[in-house]
Design the sequence.
């Protein structure tokens, strides 16, 4: 890469907060590499919001901002961070002007409490971040798209999702005229289930910016690499962000042992469903 590209990328990345810089740097490294075929980047704006709030605003500063009614300033910082990140990725994409298909950068937002039944939903505990995200959504009263560049959408917001986030995201990706080689930035594991429907899927984790392949999603979400990463297992085992487990801790441990012993990870979903029925384990809802 010639020096002008390096300087432009470094300058853009340097404008980001410490919570989002690792994400930007990882994405830049991937997108400019010679053998990368990524044509779609999906960015969960909630993740960018959380990273910014946790890295740029110490506890005392958060308290003062809330008391002084300056929350809209933080929302402005979130939207500006998204624009900087999108601009940085566009520079990285431009390094491959001969790439044959359109490249798309899409930032999105979901109300996950509308997707998950209340008794199984993990309510966010960081009041400051929650307030910032709510105000960000309040600026978008209905589903809409704010255009940034011809192939960028900033932001796609679904206030009343009629399906799980990964289903809606997949519909959006499938509408794009490219090969559907996706990189996602999100700390909401429900989104990751899109991996089954796209040509290629990789995840850039928040804060660390670690680059993960889809084969590792069960380990990332469940801490159990032998449990298949499916919506059915997600309901039963839950995650650390949004979904509470639908089974008791002891039952979950016993189910995990059975899954490992019987190698469910290699079974088709209908066989897994049959086995769950035999064990008299039912799902209270579907993702």
Sequence:
């Amino acid at each position: 890469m010639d020096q002008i590209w390096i300087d432009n990328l470094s300058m853009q990345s340097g404008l980001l907060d410490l919570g989002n810089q690792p994400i930007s740097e990882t994405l830049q490294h991937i997108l400019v590499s010679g053998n990368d075929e990524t044509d779609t980047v999906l960015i969960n704006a909630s993740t960018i919001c959380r990273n910014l709030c946790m890295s740029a605003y110490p506890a005392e500063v958060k308290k003062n901002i809330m008391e002084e009614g300056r929350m809209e300033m933080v929302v402005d910082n979130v939207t500006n961070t998204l624009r900087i990140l999108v601009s940085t990725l566009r520079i990285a994409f431009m390094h491959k002007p001969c790439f044959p298909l359109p490249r798309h950068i899409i930032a999105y937002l979901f109300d996950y409490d509308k997707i998950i039944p209340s008794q199984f939903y993990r309510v966010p505990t960081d009041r400051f971040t929650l307030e910032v995200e709510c105000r960000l959504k309040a600026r978008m009263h209905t589903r809409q798209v704010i255009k940034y560049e011809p192939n960028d959408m900033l932001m796609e917001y679904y206030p009343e999702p009629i399906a799980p986030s990964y289903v809606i995201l997949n519909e959006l990706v499938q509408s794009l005229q490219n090969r559907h080689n996706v990189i996602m930035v999100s700390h909401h594991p429900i989104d990751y289930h899109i991996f089954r429907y796209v040509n290629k899927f990789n995840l850039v984790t928040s804060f660390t910016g670690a680059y993960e392949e889809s084969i590792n999603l069960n380990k990332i979400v469940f801490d159990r690499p032998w449990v298949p990463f499916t919506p059915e297992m997600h309901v039963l085992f839950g995650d650390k962000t949004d979904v509470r487990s639908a089974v008791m801790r002891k039952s979950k441990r016993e189910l995990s042992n059975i899954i490992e012993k019987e190698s469910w990870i290699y079974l088709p979903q209908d066989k897994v469903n049959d086995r769950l029925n035999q064990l008299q384990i039912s799902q209270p809802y579907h993702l």
